[in-house]
Amino acid sequence: xxxxxxxxxxxxxxxxxxxxxxxxxxxxxxxxxxxxxxxxxxxxxxxxxxxxxxxxxxxxxxxxxxxxxxxxxxxxxxxxxxxxxxxxxxxxxxxxxxxxxxxxxxxxxxxxxxxxxxxxxxxxxxxxxxxxxxxxxxxxxxxxxxxxxxxxxxxxxxxxxxxxxxxxxxxxxxxxxxxxxxxxxxxxxxxxxxxxxxxxxxxxxxxxxx
Length: 210
Known about the structure:
The protein is an alpha+beta fold. The chain has helices spanning 8-15, 32-35, 44-47, 54-68, 73-85, 90-99, 102-108, 115-123, 157-162, 201-208; strands at 127-129, 132-133, 146-149, 175-178, 183-186.
């Protein structure tokens, strides 16, 4: 499957916001947004002072969201199309669909330090949904689904080294994490108050509605 291999710190700098693509580094003084909070390239600092048009603002919000969830353009647009076809408020449905991706849920539960790491865990068969191995990062979880680590993998050096980090993440209200079982459960659909993403969904909808 195609994926974006651009340097992740440059993606954050280009969007002018922390997208939390590098795990613990994003919370340290070594974060690129702390050292150089302007766009990459020789004209990056000057570009920071430029005023964007309404189209430019919409485009940047769309790019920011796409990179936040580590999706390609076609993948992200498909989520918009699906949200637009469902009954209800698109500005609520679109983030719900993105948040309910299995790789994002693994990240939200604190089982991985970044979404890219969560996607790798899913791809490599570490993650179980309702006791069944699922290797599709885009799998949409539902209310009542239980997400955990395959028991055989818990004895691997990776998970042993992760033991001290589990349970420290700020798990959103629509998920419940059991540290002892190293698993989580979807207790409700994501609500508006659960979203703390660094982008404006309304501008994304305006971009695709042109």
